[in-house]
Amino acid sequence: MRGWTPAERALMERIAAVLRGVRYGQVNIVIQDSRVVQIEVLEKTRLVECYPLEHRPKG
């Protein structure tokens, strides 16, 4: 992180914090005009066991 501006360093620290907080999922960084304008997080929950859905007759 040598040679970065304080704003660039803060952005990289924020991205790193987001990455540390996601166990399973995606982090998308949206860039417009060479600038980061948005960080999107899609987190998933992994189920260890399968839970079948009950099939209920209609009527």
What does this protein look like?
With 59 residues, the chain is an alpha+beta fold. The protein has a domain at 6-43. Helix content is 27%, strand content 29%. It has one helix and two strands; from the N terminus they run H-E-E. The protein has one helix spanning 6-21; strands at residues 25-32, 35-43. It has a two-stranded antiparallel ribbon. Strand 1 (25-32) and strand 2 (35-43) form a beta hairpin. It is elongated and about 65 Å long. The mean pLDDT is 88.
First CA to last CA: what distance? 65 Å
Would you identify the regions where 5 or more consecutive residues have pLDDT less than 50? Answer: none
The biggest beta sheet, please?
A: 2 strands, antiparallel
Q: Average pLDDT value?
A: 88
The total strand number stands at: 2
Strand order of the main beta sheet, please? 1-2
Order of helices and strands: HEE
Number of helices: 1
Structural category is: alpha+beta
Broad shape: elongated
Fraction of residues in H or I helices: 25-40%
What's the quick description here?
It is built from one helix and two strands, in the order αββ. It has about 60 residues and is an alpha+beta fold.
Protein topology:
Blueprint: H1 6-21, E1 25-32, E2 35-43
